[in-house]
Write a structure and sequence with these properties.
The protein is α+β, with helices and mostly antiparallel strands. It is 66% helix and 8% strand.
């Protein structure tokens, strides 16, 4: 009976210790609830239009790829937090020489103690450095994904504008071709033109109708792509407000690219990976150093009727495993990270130069279309139209100049898109968003 009372007391003490020790009976982590945007953020604007700034805000709130990247960033932050924790202490209960025959007097030795593993000095510091670098990589990758998303939204927004303007040009061309076909039918009936000219006008009308259908389809596809980036398919039919940039003057072109790209998220991530590799190498060098395990226990020897105190010290002997393979792997990881920094810098500079060349070329072509090509084509159309009315030009000449004018307007819209797409590339590389 006395032995059972002692065992019961020891078990109660063990349960109480497990409850009171920090972290042993902690409340399970709660899954964070997904924050819902406010009604003012998700509601459609009062005028029923969608500006570029609002499109970017909607994409940052609803884009699933960005949300997945944010979850990976939080996971890396959790790993960094976990790397700071020491191993939990262990509660130990031992009963020795427990008599099998309950009729015999109690002869057992009962001990209750606690043991703690003490990492070798420097190991936990290296673990914390690895965790901090891992969190920095996750945050930088999230920033990079966010900057890329903003760029993609801008390009998709400009693509919708280009497609809709091209569709408007195609619709205008259909009206002109329809009027030309009707005029050709009347003149052929009056004997003023040959039948082949009327047939050519009718063929051009059918071609312009097909082009109008293709342009409308491309505009619908562009809108769906924009709505997909925004994560809001219900806004696929919302009219856009902001127009594309036609000036071709960007202030960031005057800044040295090396200064602009130094804070790019890709460079930040590359440097953080190197810090992580260096910390991993340091940790691999410390791995063979033994972690000491210390323990203390107290109890009672029932046979001798004495109280006992016990102290234990466990030191692993690194005789066979010197962790040389992990150290070699970590050294290769540092060299890989160094090469990654150089490769990232070269790739960013190459991408910057390519985008800069596209931007300058598109700006030159946009200016040429706006200042020379479009005015001349409109002037030529007016002259040929006047000459056709006066009988100086034939019907085929009028159809050709109408087609040429429409093609010049379409080419201008395409160059505008190239200009703004290149600008979005430059802004994404030169002005990364803050990590908040």
């Amino acid at each position: 009976m006395k032995q059972e009372l002692i065992l019961t007391c020891l078990l109660c003490l063990g349960v109480a210790a497990s409850v009171t020790l920090p972290g042993c009976a902690a409340e399970p982590p709660r899954v964070p609830k997904k924050s819902r945007p406010s009604a003012t953020q998700t509601a459609a604007p009062a005028d029923g239009t969608l500006s570029l700034d609002r499109a970017i805000r909607l994409a940052l709130m609803h884009n699933p790829q960005l949300q997945a990247s944010g979850a990976r960033k939080e996971a890396a932050a959790g790993r960094a937090l976990q790397a700071r924790a020491w191993p939990n202490p262990e509660l130990e209960l031992s009963v020795e020489d427990l008599p099998i025959n309950r009729s015999r007097p109690a002869q057992s030795k009962n001990m209750l103690g606690i043991s703690q593993a003490v990492p070798y000095p420097g190991k936990k510091k290296a673990d914390r450095e690895i965790g901090v670098a891992d969190a920095a990589v996750g945050a930088a990758e999230w920033r990079l994904k966010r900057a890329e998303l903003v760029k993609e939204v801008k390009i998709a927004y400009y693509q919708v504008q280009t497609a809709e303007r091209s569709a408007a040009v195609a619709a205008d061309l259909v009206k002109v071709a329809d009027a030309a076909a009707a005029a050709a039918a009347k003149r052929n009936a009056a004997g003023e033109i040959a039948l082949q000219e009327q047939l050519r006008a009718e063929i051009q009308l059918e071609q312009t109708k097909a082009e109008e259908t293709d342009a409308a389809r491309e505009a619908a596809v562009a809108r769906q792509a924009l709505a997909l980036l925004l994560g809001r398919p219900d806004l696929s039919g919302t009219p856009l407000t902001a127009g594309p940039d036609e000036a071709g003057d960007l202030l960031l072109l005057r800044v040295a690219p090396s200064a602009l790209l130094a804070g790019h998220p890709a460079m930040v991530a590359a440097r953080a990976r190197r810090d992580q590799a260096v910390a991993t190498l340091r940790r691999a060098g410390l791995e063979p150093r033994p972690d000491v395990k210390v323990g203390v226990a107290g109890g009672r020897d029932e046979a001798a009727n004495e109280n006992l105190m016990e102290f234990r010290l466990t030191i692993p002997l690194p005789l066979f495993d010197r962790n040389q393979g992990k150290q070699h792997e970590a050294q290769a990881g540092v060299r890989e990270a160094d090469a990654g920094i150089a490769a990232t810098q070269q790739a960013l500079l190459a991408a910057w130069r390519a985008a800069l060349a596209r931007y300058n070329a598109a700006a030159t072509q946009v200016a040429a279309h706006r200042e020379r090509i479009l005015p001349k084509s409109e002037q030529a159309l007016r002259l040929v139209q006047t000459g056709f009315d006066e009988g100086k030009f034939g019907f085929i000449d009028l159809l050709d100049i109408q087609r040429t004018t429409a093609e010049a307007r379409l080419a201008y819209q395409k160059k505008l898109f190239e200009l703004n797409a290149a600008r979005a590339d430059l802004e994404a590389m030169a002005e990364p968003l803050p990590a908040n």
